[in-house]
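ok, trying the design again with the full structure, not the truncated one.
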């Protein structure tokens, strides 16, 4: 099952002032639009890379523990595990102690490793396991410079091509975007 965003980032990786400077704008007429484009550009970069840029809280739910004893967590990079819970048949939630698993945050995706059969089985058929975690590089200043530049390029592209629909006059995304995000892409296996 996919991850669910619980808490959105408190800030964007690019400030309104930085975006306006990049766009060479000296008026405030489009501030609301530009702020929305920054958020959209961040989401675009996050989708391309399968990474969270600024700290945010996510939950992954599963129906059963993986038989191989490894549970992958996306988006990357995972900063810490908030909780791991298992729901009983009646809906009561049991916390899984942190010492029951090992977390590899250096991997992308991060992995929770455990001995198969060592964790309590969920009593519910669907989504009985929930892993809540924080993901992201930290504050906006901690986001790698190439990813911040990718947000700038996409926000500028959106601003310059607003109103144009794909296939109906919209220019393609800048070619310089691909090499900026490529080293940060988390590949699906």
């Amino acid at each position: 099952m996919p991850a669910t965003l619980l808490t959105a980032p408190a800030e964007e990786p690019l400030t309104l002032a930085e975006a306006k400077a990049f766009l060479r704008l000296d008026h405030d007429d489009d501030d609301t639009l530009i702020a929305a484009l920054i958020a959209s550009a961040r989401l675009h970069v996050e989708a391309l890379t399968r990474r969270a840029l600024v700290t945010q809280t996510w939950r992954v739910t599963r129906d059963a523990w993986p038989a191989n004893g490894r549970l992958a967590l996306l988006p990357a990079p995972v900063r810490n595990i908030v909780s791991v819970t298992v729901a009983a048949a009646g809906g009561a939630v049991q916390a899984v102690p942190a010492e029951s698993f090992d977390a590899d945050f250096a991997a992308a995706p991060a992995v929770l490793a455990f001995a198969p059969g060592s964790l309590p089985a969920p009593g519910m058929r669907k989504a009985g396991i929930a892993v809540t975690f924080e993901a992201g590089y930290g504050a906006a200043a901690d986001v790698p410079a190439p990813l911040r530049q990718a947000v700038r390029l996409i926000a500028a592209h959106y601003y310059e091509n607003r109103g144009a629909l794909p296939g109906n006059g919209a220019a393609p995304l800048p070619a310089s975007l691909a090499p900026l995000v490529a080293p940060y892409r988390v590949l699906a296996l």
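Keeping the full-length input from now on. Helices lie at 16-23, 31-49, 145-160, 177-181.
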